[in-house]
Design goal:
The complex is a heterodimer of chains A (about 525) and B (about 150). Chain A has four domains: about 1-85, 3-Layer(aba) Sandwich (Glutaredoxin); about 105-305, NADH-ubiquinone oxidoreductase 51kDa subunit (Rossmann fold, 3-Layer(aba) Sandwich), CATH 3.40.50.11540; about 305-395, Ubiquitin-like (UB roll); about 400-530, NADH-ubiquinone oxidoreductase 51kDa subunit, iron-sulphur binding domain (de novo design (two linked rop proteins)), CATH 1.20.1440. Helices cover about 40% and strands about 15% of the residues of chain A. Chain A has helices spanning about 10-15, 15-25, 65-70, 85, 105-110, 115-120, 125-135, 145-155, 175-185, 185-200, 215-230, 250-255, 285-295, 300-305, 335-345, 375-380, 400-415, 420-440, 460-465, 480-495, 500-505, 505-515, 525-530; strands at about 1-5, 30-35, 45-50, 50-55, 75-80, 160-165, 205-210, 235-240, 280-285, 305, 310, 315-320, 325-330, 355-360, 365, 390-395. Chain A has a five-stranded mixed beta sheet with strand order 2-1-3-4-5, covered by helices on one side. Chain A is globular, with a radius of gyration of 24 Å. With about 150 residues, chain B is α+β, with helices and mostly antiparallel strands. Chain B has two domains: about 1-60, no CATH class; about 70-150, Glutaredoxin (3-Layer(aba) Sandwich). In chain B, about 45% of the residues lie in helices and about 15% in strands. Chain B contains seven helices and five strands. Chain B starts with a helix and ends with a helix. The chains are: A alpha/beta (about 525), B alpha+beta (about 150). At the A-B interface, helix 1, strand 12, strand 16 and helix 17 of A face helix 2, helix 4, helix 5 and helix 6 of B. Chain A: Pfam families: Complex1_51K (PF01512), NADH_4Fe-4S (PF10589).
Chain lengths: ~525, ~150
Amino acid sequence: MRVFVSRDMASVALGADDVARAFADAGCDVVRTGSRGLFSIEPLVEVETDDGRIGFGPVGPGDVAAVLDGTHATRLGKVEELAFFAGQQRFTFARCGVIDPLSLEDYAALHGWQGLAAARAQAPQAVVDTVKASGLRGRGGAGFPTGIKWQTVLDAPAGDKFIVCNADEGDSGTFADRMLMEGDPYCLIEGMAIAAHAVGAGHGYIYIRSEYPFAIYTMRLAIERSAHLVAPFTLEVREGAGAYVCGEETALLDSIEGKRGQVRAKPPLPALKGLFGQPTVINNVLSLAAVPFILAEGADAYAAVGFGRSRGTMPVQLAGNVRHGGLYEIGFGITLGELVNDVGGGTASGRPVRAVQVGGPLGAYFPPSMFHLPFDYEAFAQAGGLIGHAGITVFDDSVDMAHMARFAMEFCAAESCGKCTPCRIGSTRGVEIMDRIMAQRAPSAAAQPDPGLLPSQEHGSLAKALYSRAPSRIDTSLDAQTSLLRDLCDTMKYGSLCALGGFTPYPVLSALDHFPEDFGARAPIKEAAE
Amino acid sequence: MEEFIAAWIARHGATRDRLLPLLHAMQEEAGHVDDAWVPGIARALNLSRADVHGVITFYHDFRRAPPGRHVVKLCRAESCQARGGAAIEASAARRLGVAMGETRGDGQVALEPVYCLGLCAIGPNALVDGRPVARIDADMLERIALEVAA
């Protein structure tokens, strides 16, 4: 009997290894796959039958007999027919959760390497034109057209060019890069090999954060096993070292070069002077992994789905306090409310949704009154937010939005690379302002952190910088501090070198604008204005 | 450590971009990167000591002192907070007897912050000696505490 059990880090965290062992002990042929992407049914076991793969989940190690005779209470039927999966458009994640991630036979059997073969049959310019025509935009968050980036590198005269994959997926609420690298690593390798052919690069790097040990392990093995298929293009994995800012592309390049991960001023663009000063394509995992589909199926097939100028699909990640969290790949244009309420099923706690943060620690908080927003780069920008890497973190009504705004500043202070002043100093001043606001506002029901248990960094170097001004010299009234906060955010937004300092105002100001009552405002702003 | 560095360099090369992989390898071998090894690293890669020191201190991963015998890396990021992470962090600090970011006096356990493990729909999450753990509640915390007491 053949059974399929995920070895995705999330599945393993929920006990998939024990489940797999139990089935192996019972004499089953256990195939370890990536995750299908719905974590409320993990650990998921799929049993191969004449009628297809029948899923059971969640399953524990004691459930082997009941699963094998088909009587287990969590029988789900065919996984791809569940509502969560039936509504998806899986272009990039078509194989994830289905195949053994490291099996070259499995990959080839499900359209693997067709994109690379199609690309290699064409001139580099034709490949770049196809990517342009697909409308693919950078999935890391900036949304810059991938084809135009490639064109710049193709046109750059140089001997050595590089393909760099940004797999430093540090945003909370996002895990699509990790799932793809663990569940379908050859797809990323194929995308990078296509990029290499398109721009004339010989070597590529995949920079993976150290917090993703499973992805590092899987990618290294996959690179080894597929080396003969992508040759003469060569690849290597570089492991990050716990610096969030290295997700910024120029900081990432410095990190690969063996330096502190500090942001570079642009220009010059990495496309012209990138890694080791050479023309470099640097793309997110999801951008590169979308390319094999585009080359194999054609630009039109990809561009046919989407919304406005956002073409193709986005692997949306539902996270935080959500009942059915996981990965949901769908064409742009689905609304935020459909994602959170219909797909995600509301909160896991059963309490009302109060806020969702879209796009990681640098993304805006939106209240349910804005759930009509379509998932689209432009629509989100207009609403004062960003799609980012398409992670949606759901919060219920117990959240203290002033605390979340403070956390955004605290995180920026901890992770700032230190190169530019608005980010390095501004974030620390922001924490101080938030502390004054939280001290001044009416006592909140939300629990305050126990000062004795705060992270030690606050007692260390940060403590010296904090509260450096005597309170007697500051107007600590709520009005004064709130306008100071807006002023500070303005400086950080327009004065910072990169998105870390530049986008930290998004969560802070959106929390202030949409949830003023948490910041001590006597009445919601709308009513006060009347 | 001089021999370790020499052997590593012989295998992987001595260009500047090898610095992070070398530091990872040393920490893997010894548990931390001691200040005393900085001159040796600098010599091997033809860098200044300040340069090497700057890199080691920039990245959160590199430890300059030996870690606890057990390391619990608990996620502090937004998605885990949305699922009660702050309360679990407070309980973990109390139960393990060590503040976040510290190693306990007896060296038995360190509680370290981590900002996102990419398990964001099943938090609060942690890495316990490298093993991922999800949906941490009071019972799970107790099991972790017993595990790291051994």
